[in-house]
Amino acid sequence: MSAIERSLDGKRILLIIGGGIAAYKSLDLIRRLRERGASVRPVLTAAGKQFVTALSVASLAGASVHEDLFSLTEEADMGHIELSRAADLIVVAPATADLLARAANGLANDLASTLLLATDKKVLMAPAMNLRMWLHPATCRNVMQLQSDGVLFAGPADGEMACGEFGPGRMVEPIDIIEAIESAIGSDTAILLPGAPLAGRKIVITSGPTHEPIDPVRYIANRSSGRQGHAIAKAAMRAGAKVVLISGPVSISDPAGVETIHVETAQEMLEAVRAHLPADIYVGAAAVADWRVENAGEQKIKKSPSGGPLLQFSENPDILAHVAKAGKSRPALVVGFAAETQNVIAYAQDKLGRKKCDLIVANDVSAEMGVMGGTQNSVHLVSALGVESWDRLDKEEVARRLVTVFADLLEKGGR
Ligand code: CTP
After folding, report:
1. Which atom of ligand 1 lies closest to the CA of 350?
2. Pocket mutation for ligand 1, best pick of 228, 290, 358 (most atoms within 8 Å of C-beta)
3. Which helix (H) or strand (E) holds 169?
4. Which one, of 355, 347, 354, 359, lies nearest residue 324 by Cα?
């Protein structure tokens, strides 16, 4: 496995750990930050201490933990004003409803809120709370206020919560917070893979799910997180390519330095892809909805005693097939993904022929594999040359290896 790139080399992160179940993920965040060359100065709130110990935080950070506003020893060592400014970025993870509320209102009644008020640096918050708390009008107001004050947000994600409910409010994964940090302050755009294997090439990548409206407030979606497609965009950029990332609605950040176009539906995605061709490489990593609702309501569909609405579906355009059959503007290398829950390789071989692409990256997305929405992937590369299966790897590593494969295939003339 290749070493992690030091994309945050020399960056100083002040990490405020609030009180929530997700606080344990902050330990992993510290590890990943340091792996990337950042130094971490941790602050633990009183509630945070209920979930993780100062000792484990300090051991992972390799630095002492700041806890008290009125600690004489800490003030003598480094006052809170200085602490809040001697950082390149302040990260709050998990950012609880209480921390958001206090920051939005400029309160300064403990060390964390005082640091947030005293800082002149960018602040990034990774919220984590019960979904009712996240959706409460008070929290919505606070988030809007913080956004208009320039605070950046990573997440929250949708998912099953510690309390058993399902919905938005879960803290995003540490790797997604890292992405957001890199976007905010990273120097990763400057890091090129040795030899910049895709220098001078243009690559168009689709990523994430599409949302197909049922009415103005409801839609049909799928579980794609966009992690794999976004990771490919980032790896391709580091390999020297000009990258256009066309993303469906996702909760992860745009990769730093990559031109990212946001779309919602399959039809919008197709239009955006068309507008950005020609390119040398096309990668269809998006989980495009196969159908859209033909009779979507122009107004919100109301409940009726005669039962639920009867939705009629029509098939969406196949973006990958469209690109692969684009005649003169067909990219030299067209890569599709195959998300399957059974017969993975056989179905991928069928897609390779049917969609006329050069390579299919096939993965098993059955629930027990945890690929959709997860941070790892185990893929099979299916092409006219045969099948190559890779071990289970981080999606970032899959992306880096894929980029090398793309460069090799282009060298050999695409197909
Ligand atoms: N794809 C696309 N446009 C669609 C559907 C799929 O571009 N309307 C692309 C995806 O981006 C992916 C590949 O086709 O690269 C395979 O997607 P997948 O959902 O696995 O296959 P389907 O075409 O939906 O085929 P099936 O329903 O038989 O699984």
Report:
1. 28
2. 290
3. strand 166-170
4. 355
Q: Whose CA is nearest to atom 4 of ligand 1?
A: 318
- For every residue of 227-250, DSSP letters joined together read HHHHHHHHHHHHTT-EEEEEE-S-
**357 catalytically annotated:** no
66-112 pLDDT, tens digit per residue, is: 987 766 556 655 677 788 888 999 999 999 999 999 999 999 999 99
Atom of ligand 1 nearest to the CA of 355: 14
| 3-class secondary structure, 393 | strand
- Angle, helix 111-118 to helix 97-104, in steps of 10 degrees: 40
Ligand 1 centroid to Cα of residue 322, in Å, is 11
Q: What is the CA(240)–ligand 1 centre distance, in A?
A: 28
Catalytic option among 138, 144, 163, 275: 163
Which atom of ligand 1 has the smallest separation from the CA of 320? 7
CA 319 to ligand 1 centroid distance, Å = 8
Q: For 219, phi and psi rounded to 5 degrees?
A: -150, 165
Radius of gyration of the chain (CA): 23
CA of 317 to the centre of ligand 1 (A): 10
Instruction: Write out pLDDT tens, residues 371-414.
Output: 776 778 889 999 999 999 999 898 989 999 999 999 999 988 75
Q: Are 160 and 166 in contact (CB under 8 A)?
A: yes
Question: Which domains are seen in the chain, by residue range?
Answer: 12-185 (3.40.50.1950), 192-293+311-411 (3.40.50.10300)
pTM flag (> 0.85): no
- What is the DSSP code string of 297-331? -SSPPPP-TT-S----EEEPP-HHHHHHT-GGG--
Name all residues whose Cβ lies below 6 A of ligand 1. 206, 266, 284, 286-288, 290, 316, 318-320, 336-339, 351
Q: Collapsing DSSP states into helix, strand and coil, what is residue 166? A: strand
What is the rounded distance in angstroms from the CA atom of residue 15 to the CA atom of residue 33?
Answer: 10
Q: Six-digit token pair at 360?
A: 């299919």
Q: Are 118 and 81 in contact (CB under 8 A)?
A: yes
Rounded Cα distance between 277 and 179, Å, is: 27
Cα distance between residue 281 and residue 203, in whole Å? 5
CA–CA gap between residue 394 and residue 10 (Å, rounded): 24
- What is the Å distance from ligand 1's center to 42 Cα? 44
